[in-house]
Amino acid sequence: MFKVFSSVFLMLSLLSISQAWAKDEEGARDAVIKVVEAFREDIVQDKAFLAENPSVLAERVDRILATVVDFDDFSRKVMGKYYRRATPEQRERFATVTKDTLLRTYGASLLELDPDKINVQPLGPQGRGRVTKVNVDFQMADAGLLNIVFYMEESKQQQWLLSNVVINNINFGLTFRRQFGVMMEQNQNNIEQAIDAWKASLAKQS
């Protein structure tokens, strides 16, 4: 009888844990939904004005992404093994360059979305790690389809933050890290010069 009771207790415990984990995963999806709705309401539906006011567009994108993106952490991941060698000033400069360019580049691309055709998909099977993948399909105004996978990770403060993003199967975190590694090699591992090259490279992509 004791073994049966213990088995039932264990099953109930595992069930409660899995239910709590499922709730956490839905929290990641909820965080993405809030960002998508903010894009729809604050940017896409006001694109005529924002197209003529890029600085306002960047400010709005920054305000929206600030709730889910830690740009300092993102920059640390992009710098990879070179992060420890960089001075605090170089880390700050790199983060600023990366953030400003991304806001300008991808803020402009948001103006091309069809506000009525943005679909946050139900959560699919997840891995065992801490990251939850949230798929979103964006219909472009020219009828093209943009699929974005948001990799969300819960912080110690129980806030869901963007860990990485894959756009149409392109892993941007990995791509950026490789690009910066090339910049370091081309500039004889001089971090200051590599940041200058990184800034110029991102400017060409914007």
Tell me what you see in this structure.
The chain has 206 residues and is of the alpha+beta class. It has one domain (2-205): Nuclear Transport Factor 2, Chain: A (Roll), CATH 3.10.450. 58% of the residues lie in helices and 18% in strands. It has a 5-stranded antiparallel β-sheet. The N and C termini lie far apart (68 Å).
A few lines on this structure:
This protein has 206 residues and is of the alpha+beta class. Helices cover 58% and strands 18% of the residues. Mean pLDDT is 79; it is low at 1-23.
Uncertain runs with pLDDT below 50, 5 residues or more? 1-23
Task: Look up the CATH topology.
Answer: Nuclear Transport Factor 2, Chain: A
Any guess at the CATH architecture?
A: Roll
Total domains, how many? 1
Series of secondary-structure elements, N-terminal to C-terminal: HHHHHEEEEEHH
Amount of helix: 55-70%
Helical stretch tally: 7
Query: What is the arithmetic mean of pLDDT?
Result: 79
Strand order of the largest sheet: 1-2-3-4-5
Classified in CATH, the superfamily is: Tgt2/MlaC
* Record field, number of beta strands: 5
> How far from one another are the termini?
68 Å
Tell me, what's the shape? globular
